[in-house]
Amino acid sequence: MRQSDLRRPGPEITAADLFAPRIYLVDADPLTRAQLADFLREKGFDVVATTEMEAAPPPVDVLIVALDGMEPRANRPDWLLEKPEIATIVLDRSRVFPGRAASLGFVPYARLSLPVQPRKLVATIRQVLSLARIESVESCEAAVREYRFSGWKLYPEARRLLSHDGKSILLEKREFEVLKALLTFPRQLLTRQQLIAIVWGSDMDVENRTLDRPITRLRRHLGDDVKYPTLLKTVVGVGYRFDVDVGKMF
C-alpha cells in the first residue's frame, strides 16, 4: 500500500459498505434474538429478526437460524429440512446436553454454538458472504461477450482490452481475471481475499501482496492515475473498488 493511497479522505467503511448484506434472523428466544439483532445492526447489517419459523424466509443475503439441541426434525418446517437456497448459518442452543447439536438434513455454510462471541459471528457472516459471492461469479458471467466501461471494451474470450481510440491491449491471464472480477461487481468493494479466491482459487495459499502486480499493470493499461485513481480505487486496508458503471453484452 502506497502512502499516496491514504491522502484522499473517504467514508468510513462498515459491513454494509463491504457486502450490503440483509440478514434474516430466526430465534425463538426473545432476549438472544434482540441482542444479536442489535449488535449486527450496530455493525451496519440490515437485520430482519423474527420468531416465525413456519414461513419460508424472504430473499436475503444470509439466513441465521437458532436451534435447540433437543428439537426434533419432525417439528421443523419443510424449507429447513433441506438445504435452503440462502447461505445459512446455524446457531446451536444445547439446553439439555451441552455440546449436543440438533440433527440437520443439510450441511449449512457455518455452524456455531450459543452463546457465540460477537466478533466470531461477524467474521463468520463475512466469510459466508465471501464464499457465496465467489461461487456466483462463473454462473453469472459465463455468457458475457463484452464489457463496456468509461470508453473501454473488454472482450473476455480473447482477453483483449480496447480503448475508445482503438488502442488494443492483450491482457495477461491474471490481469484479465482480476479485471473481470472487478467488472462483475462494479462499484462494489471486493476484499483482497475475495479477489485472490476468485482469481487463484479459494483452496490456494496466496499472499495478499500477489495482487499488487496485476493491479498496478491494470492501472497503467487504463491510464488510471496511480496516486489518485478514478477507476480502480484502493480502499485502505480492505481491498479494491472499480468505481464506474459497467455495461454487459451477452
Account of the protein in words:
A 5-stranded parallel sheet has the order 2-1-3-4-5. A 5-stranded antiparallel sheet has the order 9-8-7-6-13, with no helix packed on it. It folds into 2 domains: 15-137, Response regulator (Rossmann fold, 3-Layer(aba) Sandwich), CATH 3.40.50.2300; 143-249, Winged helix-like DNA-binding domain superfamily/Winged helix DNA-binding domain (Arc Repressor Mutant, subunit A, Orthogonal Bundle), CATH 1.10.10. The radius of gyration is 21 Å and the shape is elongated. It has helices at 15-19, 30-42, 118-141, 173-184, 192-200, 212-222, and strands spanning 22-26, 46-50, 62-68, 87-93, 110-113, 146-149, 152-155, 160-162, 168-170, 189-191, 232-235, 239-242, 247-249. It is 30% helix and 22% strand. Helix 4 (173-184) crosses helix 5 (192-200).
Features:
22% strand, five-stranded antiparallel β-sheet, Arc Repressor Mutant, subunit A, five-stranded parallel β-sheet, 13 strands, 250 residues, 6 helices, disordered N terminus, Rossmann fold, alpha/beta
How many beta strands in the DSSP annotation?
Answer: 13
Give the termini separation.
36 Å
Task: Write down the CATH topology of the largest domain.
Answer: Rossmann fold
How many structural domains? 2
- In CATH terms, what is the architecture of the largest domain? 3-Layer(aba) Sandwich
Structural class: alpha/beta
User: What coarse outline follows from CA principal-axis ratios?
Assistant: elongated
What do we call the CATH homologous superfamily of the largest domain? Response regulator
Number of helices: 6
Counting copies of identical and different chains, the oligomeric state is single chain
Provide the spatial order of strands within the biggest beta sheet. 2-1-3-4-5
Provide the gyration radius in Å: 21 Å
What is the average per-residue confidence, as pLDDT, rounded to a whole number? 81
Strand % is 15-25%
Helix content: 25-40%
Low-confidence stretches at least 5 residues in length (pLDDT < 50)?
1-19
CATH class identity of the largest domain: Alpha Beta
Order of helices and strands: HEHEEEEHEEEEHEHHEEE
Biggest beta sheet attributes: 5 strands, parallel
